[in-house]
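To whoever is covering the structure queue this week,

Two jobs came back overnight. Logging them here so there's a record in the thread.

Job A:
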Amino acid sequence: MSSSPPHPPPPEAAVGSLEVHGLSVVYGRSVTALHDVSLRVPAQGIVAMLGANGAGKSTLLRAVSGTLPLHSGAVSSGSISFDGVPLTGHAPASVVAAGVVQVPEGRRVFAGLSVADNLKAGRLGVVGRGRDDARLALAEVYDLFPVLGERRGQAAGLLSGGEQQMLAIGRALMARPRLLLLDEPSLGLAPLIVTRIAEVVRHIHQQGTGVLLVEQNAALALDLADRAYVLDVGRVRLEGPAEELSRSDDVRRLYLGEQPESGDDRETVPADRDTGPVPTLSRWSR
């Protein structure tokens, strides 16, 4: 566990933004999963987090959403805040109340409950809003995902993988989030469904909700995002505008599965980078 002091958030932190400063996370007593990670998701922005399996992407989302203790993890140093409200170490219900909601990897729907009951579960922990708001939220989810309205009485476990992902996103939207944490939303889905999920993310963004997108499909993530970060072995190795990173030789070689056209064009890997083999993401497509 690190003994370094936490990094204080900057005084100019923007309203409605997620601010992560010097975040380190440990599992158990000895496994450090994140090392001094800092990032910012501006109000109503889309930020992508890229990296291979085991880079620490899901750990970052767990730290923000307050679910680390469920996985025997803990923040050892650093701070997390949203809209100026500290979130570090807070329970998941408090994080949801602050306006931050996560869609976990693997969909995680309640298989034995109906579609409608799964969506109603998304209202748990939401306070200060009445039944009219709940009805309006439900109507908006059905409008966004008409297939869920058609199958509202069907058990969630009988839905296809793509429909379950829609249900998981719809359940999160029931809480009226101002920041949505998406963990691998395209994982295991057919290309047509991935396209639909991308359209939904754009729609959510256009409605004023910020998005922190963790995604192994780097092409999709960089196309959707305004800014991107690259995690490697728990550290932020690269960051910048998504369009610029998509043109970076380092990103294309390590995370998009491409090679520079010639040795003269190849970017130099920073000296402090772990130069061991980095898995190439296999889901790069145009």
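Job B:
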Amino acid sequence: MTYSADFRAQVIKSVKNKDMSIRQACTFYNVSKTALQRWLKTPSIKQTRDKSPTKIPNDALLEDVKQHPDDYLYERARRFKCSKTGMHTALKRIGISQKKDLRASKSVPNKKSDVPE
């Protein structure tokens, strides 16, 4: 969870004005020392990552989805040598959901049941 910019500014102000030490501010505001030191270094809230994802390239993932449209996450993860969670995140990043629906599956033909309605 991200703390609000107002709260961060209040904590930074109390430390920079020498009203409190870093340790006292951490105790009073119930914030970790590492977080407070990071705020003092860069007070703005980060909105993006510093680096692009490198484990699973988007173009290779799109090609894999085209070649194997019905594969499960663990099968894709095995091919890319990563975890299922990492594969889920990569697919979500490029806007592909992995909802299995046998009616929409290309590998399973559409079969009607033998039970009359």
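Note for Job B: The radius of gyration is 25 Å.

Please reply-all if you pick these up so we don't duplicate work.
Q.
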